[in-house]
Structures are given as structure tokens and as C-alpha cells.
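[retry 2/3] Ribosome assembly RNA-binding protein YhbY: previous attempt timed out, resubmitting with same input.
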Amino acid sequence: MLTGKQKRFLRSKAHHLDPIFQVGKGGVNENMIKQIDDVLEARELIKVSVLQNCEEDKNSVAESLSKGAKAELVQIIGNTIVLYKESRENKQLVLPR
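[retry 2/3] Ribosome assembly RNA-binding protein YhbY: success.
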């Protein structure tokens, strides 16, 4: 689990990122979770945008994505979800203790 200090640090890093994925009418599926997992391995921190036509609530989308990709949910701001997962190969972010 992330501490408040670590979440603040990750939020400041995520501020400049653009959402890479969009969750729309189809909602969350296995393929999307797999792709998000792969991208998290490469980047560690990503934003996912929940579109207006998404039938699922943004909180349940965030939960499905974080559980499916085994990632930490950093924040939900507006319709944007910020996810973090420590990379095994390409560690870039050093979290504060």
C-alpha cells in the first residue's frame, strides 16, 4: 500500500502526463487490462480516461483496472484515473519513504 506522502509524490509526477487509455462504452475487458499491465511495466505511472459514454461508474472502472493489473490506485480526479505499479525491469520512480 502507498502512504499519503508517496501518493502526493506520484500525483505530482502524474500531473504532466496525458491519459494513454480510454475506457468507453465497452467498459473494462481482459485485453485492456493486459495492455495496461504491459504499459505499467514500461512506464510505472499512467493515466486512464473514463469517457462520458462508459456505462460503468468511474470508481468501479478504477477498481477493476487496479485489481486486474495488480496496480495501486493513486487518484481519481474528474474522469481520470491515475495508476502506479512498480516496474520489475525498468524502475524509474523512487518513492519517498
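[retry 2/3] Ribosome assembly RNA-binding protein YhbY: The beta strands are 21-23, 45-50, 72-77, 80-84.
[retry 2/3] clearing retry counter.
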